[in-house]
Write a structure and sequence with these properties.
Blueprint (H helix, E strand, L loop, with lengths): L1 H23 L4 E4 L2 E3 L3 E6 L4 E6 L4 H30 L7 H23 L1 H5 L9 E2 L1 H22 L5
Antiparallel strand pairs: 1-2, 1-5, 2-3, 3-4
Helix pairs in contact: 1-2, 1-5, 2-3, 3-5
């Protein structure tokens, strides 16, 4: 039981950290090695000063949807972890972690929706006249997609986890 509890906690924390990195880092779309776009900023690498120069992204309804869903996903996953810790000490023996699993599943579904919107509406989100074939998805976008199954699996594990002692 202890091994299962530790492994589910580690899975939750790993997925939460990946979700935070995917939401906050600067690499959802890469135009070139010196130009990247994320949910919050467009950044250019300045060779003269050897720094990234960033400006706020142009607002679109699709971008705001992705931003809101990613933030909601982080909030649901954080709440899920805090509720799990609370339930670990307060639930009676034999009880199930339904609310924790439900919050974690919602985090997975909101992350899934955000990734789908960015995938299918990146032309409107990036709001650029350039050809999208000259760019590629960045590692934060891939991390966001990797979080989807991890969040859903941990949500299912929480629902089936029964408190023994």
């Amino acid at each position: 039981m202890v091994v299962l509890l530790i492994s589910i906690t580690v899975l939750h924390l790993v997925s939460l950290v990946m979700l935070l990195i995917a939401t906050l880092e600067k690499s959802w779309w890469i135009w070139a090695d010196s130009e990247i776009t994320d949910l919050w900023y467009n950044c250019f690498y300045d060779n003269a000063t050897q720094t990234w120069l960033c400006a706020a992204t142009t607002e679109s309804d699709w971008l705001q949807s992705v931003q809101a869903l990613m933030v909601l996903s982080v909030v649901f996953s954080s709440i899920s972890f805090l509720v799990f810790l609370f339930q670990l000490f307060t639930l009676s023996r034999g009880s199930l972690f339904y609310f924790t699993g439900l919050c974690q599943a919602f985090a997975g579904f909101t992350d899934f929706a955000a990734c789908l919107i960015f995938t299918f509406h990146r032309k409107e989100i990036l709001n650029d006249s350039r050809d999208l074939s000259k760019g590629r998805f960045g590692y934060c976008f891939i991390l966001a997609w990797l979080c989807v199954p991890l969040l859903l699996i941990s949500g299912v594990l929480y629902v089936h986890l029964r408190k023994k002692q």
